[in-house]
Amino acid sequence: MTPAGSGKTSSPKVLALSGGIGGAKLDLGLYHVLDPWDLAIVANTGDDFEHLGLTICPDLDTIMYTLSATSDEAKGWGRKDETWACLEQLKALGGSSWFGLGDKDLAVHLYRSALLREGKSLGEITASLFARFGVKAHVLPMADQAVGTIIHTRDGRDLPFQHYFVKERCAPEITGFTYQGAQTAKPPAALLDIIRSGDLRAVIVAPSNPFVSINPILSVPGIRAALAASNIPVVAVSPLIGGAAVKGPLARMLVEMGLPATNRSIADQYKGLLSGMVIDTTDKGDADTLQDLPVLAVNTLMNSLEDRMRLAQDVLEFADRLRE
Amino acid sequence: MTPAGSGKTSSPKVLALSGGIGGAKLDLGLYHVLDPWDLAIVANTGDDFEHLGLTICPDLDTIMYTLSATSDEAKGWGRKDETWACLEQLKALGGSSWFGLGDKDLAVHLYRSALLREGKSLGEITASLFARFGVKAHVLPMADQAVGTIIHTRDGRDLPFQHYFVKERCAPEITGFTYQGAQTAKPPAALLDIIRSGDLRAVIVAPSNPFVSINPILSVPGIRAALAASNIPVVAVSPLIGGAAVKGPLARMLVEMGLPATNRSIADQYKGLLSGMVIDTTDKGDADTLQDLPVLAVNTLMNSLEDRMRLAQDVLEFADRLRE
Prior knowledge:
homodimer; alpha/beta; Rossmann fold; 7-stranded parallel sheet; 14 strands
């Protein structure tokens, strides 16, 4: 896949499957250790939602702000040097203000929503946005069609992800997940081309939440099958450290789903897909529980850019060893 | 008409027909010299338009910001202490940025648009917005239905008002106007109640542009007839001073329409409706050209709040004399 004007003629060498915050950290590491155009990222859009008439794509935006160094690193989402004049006014008017819409961030939503209304595809818009933000990697939404992660709760409700995550702060107990619209969604042709190009050195499953970040991607017909049919090493980086997620409700979700909060549970989510798994040194004892799956135990906590780059390098070298 | 919770039991005493900038100046004068709940304003919504998925009502907002002392008086539109982070980012992305959307102003558009999508009427939303801004006067959009002022140009185009006014900066030569949707629009019941209440002391046609501010209001079926059928003095304040408009393209529009830029041309626009006309002292010689129409010549230029209040008082007293 060669975007117009990129001047790049070869196909990407590494494909990452990624959600937002945690995934974007490793994406950034990969972006820095690779020639940027050698990196392709397929991003979860199961969190996307309509809010105040805007189409909001939280994971795509987190990845975009992270790779372009415009993200609020402390918060983990949104823009750095953000202002909140609009949201404060909206709150004063009694309008819907549960979702944090910064003034700059809002421009991205207005821009994307306007182009969607004009009939442009999410993939085209994403390419245009990332280019405007100066990101020199291939970032693809998992589908142009809407695929919405629905959270089924113990109290019998079906909540779109952002309602569960932001509005209800992950309070409702979970009984399951549905990826609404997945059956009729189509994988991006560019993604299938990348997987089938023969040029991929590795596929990295970023340390994102399997239920609400990676499985939605794999729910799009054709993506899992294309990965499984390839002989590219597929390496997952576990989002758990010592049975806890660095950020977000993953550990709790596992327990509510009746699963232990262990690396084994993560590996089971990707059954039949993985060539290897990267876990934190804290959990190196887990290697035994992962049966025949090759395991690399390294420091997976990413506080600094150096941590991100080192982990990215470790993961790539591990994948290379799996290939040999 | 008594809005819930206003604690006001009597009907308004003065009704103003108003466009944005110029009209809002006199509205503010009336708001200050009257008991505020004694003032009703019917606002032009012919300038309303859809932009970036938002329903924008420039005249309603200008009136709201003006009466609530939150307007940018120097600019004449928008909010004071406004910030522009969103618009600047939108511009950087190559998005549509020809319309000046401030960050605070944007919240009003998001709020209104969301409620319209939920099925609330423009009238209800307007009442709620003005209440949130602390305005204690009855402000009604001329109709809940969309009525769009279309500018017909010499080069054969039909431009929605904001495109003509903001995007093309009034450059195209005008050949006529259409108020699209007017035929099927309905006047607000509250407006007809006010006109028929028997409580009105005066109807003031604010110094707004007849073609693109006042005639759109009068194009809504029933409004002109209700005014004509009443015996309330209807007084127009001319927007011209010495054949020029204080602001905006009125003088030019008159010339392009083949009409002299005179108070007579303004009066002709309101034929059969007026009990009297207020013109600037500069133009007191025009009284002869206005035939039998009673004329008050005073200083109509409104630079300060005092100017606005003085003119409002002059106009009200003139209307009272016309009644006697």
